[in-house]
Amino acid sequence: MKQFALLLERLAFTPRRLGKIRHLVDYFAATPDPTRGLALAALTGDLDLRRVSPSLLRGLVGERVDPELFRLSYDFVGDLAETIALIWDGPEQGADPPLPVVIKTLRETPKTDLPRLISGQLDELGPSERYAFLKLATGGMRVGVSARMARMAVAEYGDLDVTGIEEVWHGLEPPFTELFAWAEGRPRPEAAAHAPFRPVMLSTATDFEALESLDPALFAAEWKWDGIRVQATNDRGIRRLYSRTGEEISNAFPDIIEALNFEGTIDGELLVRRDDRVAPFGDLQKRLGRKTVSAKMRASHPAALRAYDLLVHGSEDLRQLPFERRRKALENLVREIDEPRIDISTLLPFATWEDLAALRADPPDAVVEGVMIKRLDSPYLAGRMKGPWFKWKRDPMLIDAVLLYAQRGHGKRSGYYSDFTFGVWDGDQLVPVGKAYFGFTDAELRELDRFVRNNTTDRFGPVRAVAPAKVVEVAFEGLNRSTRHKSGVAMRFPRISRIRDDKPAAEADTLSNLREFLPKE
Q1: Residues paired with residue 442 on neighbouring β-strands, in sequence order
Q2: Average pLDDT of the residues in 19-28
Q3: Which CATH number is associated with domain 397-515?
Q4: Residue 53 DSSP code
Q5: Distance, CA of 211 to CA of 65 (rounded, Å)
């Protein structure tokens, strides 16, 4: 446990990616199975543990520590696990239980016995180990390591290709002994590669000025729809649906799984489509994350796959072929399977970038986010590289809103108020309409943090209410109707694009202004 705790500290306090990967490689080299595999699973989010709720932890610490002292400490530290680890009255040099034993105990302890278990562990562990234990128990590592970065570290440790690791990842389970055996020279776990996820090819943002230097005759273009990017695969009868990050979402979309009557892998956009009309993203969101989907939900929110690319056809890997050839193969496949739940993305007719700009400015549907632009000769390459594929998004929607609440951030932002709730006027009342925690510069973050500290009017646990005096410009990609929010609307990808100190709060936008962005029914 001490070595795992030390690893988390090193990862949290190492800012650069290469430094984090080096710490992970060293840990994998020095740590035996199954401990290193369980640590890897904790970092990638693949560790199946019962999540301990923040309210349970607050209740436990409330029995040991003065509430006001804890409130002030939490306000200063900004991270619940770190605050409890530091403030808990335990030993400075505590026990060192093996990580597999700690994880096994967390898995097997009945829910009713969790408070006793957690208190007992915190009483025995030192501060760093308490922090690591609480991170495991809550499931929130937040040490600046993504799942892909952790897999990159395994690739570096074993001198493997990270793309190859990602293609077998979903056939592996913690503690990943087969994976580490492969990294140490034994055969690739081929059985894990059935119905694999292929790392996706990503685009880079562009604009008209950047496109002017390129020859439009070398590119194809299609609409960018407001759904989620997915990969649909049928490999020797094993059918799966993955998000663009490789998360399997098959259970939430059995209607798409049923439609995969072909052998191969399609890259496309997952949508809710009623007849020929694509529904707003909010309709799709109602199905995301579900373990099961009722027949009623399937009927009211029918899923569809809009195909963009064909990565594998039968047993043939097409990824090294140019996009133009993969596109023709995709057209033939969609025509052959003749499945109403799978259609193909339309290529847009344009001869000049001015032609494409005109199409982008007047899309056929409000849920179109912009256009995708792809070189006709581009192979399908994992990751994001500048040149082959571009996304030219429509200009974001903008409103001026008033800051209402703020909460401390996490990780390197734990010292700042960086998560903001904002609202607009509904009559003479300000109503919350969204939250944002990015879009601002570091200098703007410091300015907003200073405003929160100097203008707090009330506290609700870790949340501060602030005087309604700071106006911010909020950019967002779309607006949906929502019964979950008091305002009746939900923003898509809101972010604070600038601070409007030139505008008084009384002149911020209204709820009726915001509702004008709703798709027309």
Answers
A1: none
A2: 97
A3: 2.40.50.140
A4: P
A5: 60
- In CATH, what class is 201-393? alpha beta
* Amino acid present at 415: G
Question: Annotated catalytic, 503?
Answer: no
Longest distance between any two alpha carbons in the chain, whole Å: 72
CATH match of 2-138 with 1.10.3260.10: yes
3-state secondary structure of 504: coil
Nearest to 517 by CA among 493, 490, 497, 495: 490
pLDDT tier for residue 51 given thresholds of 50, 70 and 90? confident
CA 48 to chain centroid, in Å, comes to: 19
Average pLDDT over residues 28-53: 92
Among 22-31, 312-321, 471-480, the range scoring the smallest mean pLDDT is 471-480
| CA gap 198, 100 in Å, rounded | 31
Residues 6+ apart with CB under 8 A from 504: 471
Q: What is the pLDDT of residue 521?
A: 61
147-158 tens-digit pLDDT: 889 999 999 999
Chain centroid to CA 235: how far? 26
> Chain centroid to CA 196: how far?
20
Residue closest to 377 by CA, chosen among 324, 317, 330: 324
What is the C-alpha separation between 49 and 379, in angstroms, rounded?
40
Instruction: Give the count of alpha carbons within 13 A of 364, CB side only.
Output: 9
For residues 55, 61, 66, 67, the Cα torsion angle rounded to the nearest 10 degrees is: -10
Q: With CA atoms as reference, report the closest residue to 63 among 88, 26, 98.
A: 88
Residue type, 120: G
State percent of the chain over pLDDT 90: 68
Helices (H), 313-404: 323-337, 353-361
From the candidates 224, 328, 470, 486, which is the catalytic residue?
224
Helix (H) or strand (E) holding 456: strand 456-460
Mean pLDDT over 221-243 rounds to 93
Domain ranges of the chain: 2-138, 201-393, 397-515
